[in-house]
Design brief:
Blueprint (H helix, E strand, L loop, with lengths): L1 H7 L1 H10 L3 H13 L4 H9 L2 H4 L1 H14 L13 H16 L3 H11 L1 H15 L7 H15 L2 H13 L4 H9 L7 H17 L4
Helix pairs in contact: 2-3, 2-4, 2-10, 3-6, 4-6, 7-9, 8-9, 10-11, 10-12, 10-13, 11-13, 12-13
Length: about 210
């Protein structure tokens, strides 16, 4: 049973180690993921989407490490940069996460940065998070892990909500955070659980 649980939460651990720039640990976890036959495509997408949260330098180094561990794996073809398609998919995914608060979110961000408001939908939820290779639920659980170790409260709260809307159970989200023991401090884990408990309380789950 334990092996099944640890395999299930390896992707979020990989995302968190990458976001922390803990590349030695990242390499160890990727090797473990390879041994338990987590598909390369999932590992690739998990690390690729991290540039949205941890930046290009972290993603570049992490994906280089992945390629070193899988030297013969064929990389996915680059998608056609169809901005209309990305924006349409981005709005669909963003509404899926924020539901009735989507317009308020966009208007709020637009009030201090119209560029970030547009990029959130087009770049984040469209070009990146709508890619094949990972289920939306898997993407959200990886993001929960990253935002926990980066300790970004409001975005973590939003993506806990996103994970729930992507059909992740509260127990899965809790275990995602608890399994971060291997890559982060107890304080970061406690921070993530605090935000999750706030979410549960505000949604009437506790």
């Amino acid at each position: 049973m334990q092996q099944s649980i640890s395999k299930k939460y390896l992707l979020p651990q990989i995302a968190a180690a990458s976001a922390l720039n803990n590349f030695s640990q990242l390499k160890d976890i990727i090797v473990k993921a390879k041994k338990v036959k987590i598909p390369f495509s999932k590992l690739y997408e998990c690390l690729l989407q991290n540039y949205l949260f941890a930046g290009y330098p972290s993603a570049l180094t992490s994906l280089k490490i992945l390629k070193e561990i899988y030297p013969n794996k064929k990389l996915p073809a680059v998608e056609d940069m169809n901005l209309y398609h990305f924006r349409k998919k981005g709005e669909e995914n963003c509404r899926r996460v924020y539901h009735g608060k989507f317009d308020k979110l966009i208007n709020n961000i637009n009030s201090f940065s119209p560029e970030l408001s547009e990029w959130l939908v087009l770049e984040g939820y469209g070009k990146v998070l709508s890619r094949p290779g990972l289920k939306f639920k898997e993407r959200e659980l990886c993001i929960v892990a990253v935002l926990t170790v980066m300790r970004v409260e409001e975005q973590l709260y939003s993506h806990i909500n996103g994970a729930v809307r992507a059909k992740a159970s509260v127990e899965e989200i809790e275990m995602t955070i608890k399994n971060l023991d291997l890559v982060t401090t107890k304080m970061s884990k406690a921070f993530g659980l605090k935000v999750l408990n706030r979410y549960k309380k505000e949604k009437g789950m506790s």
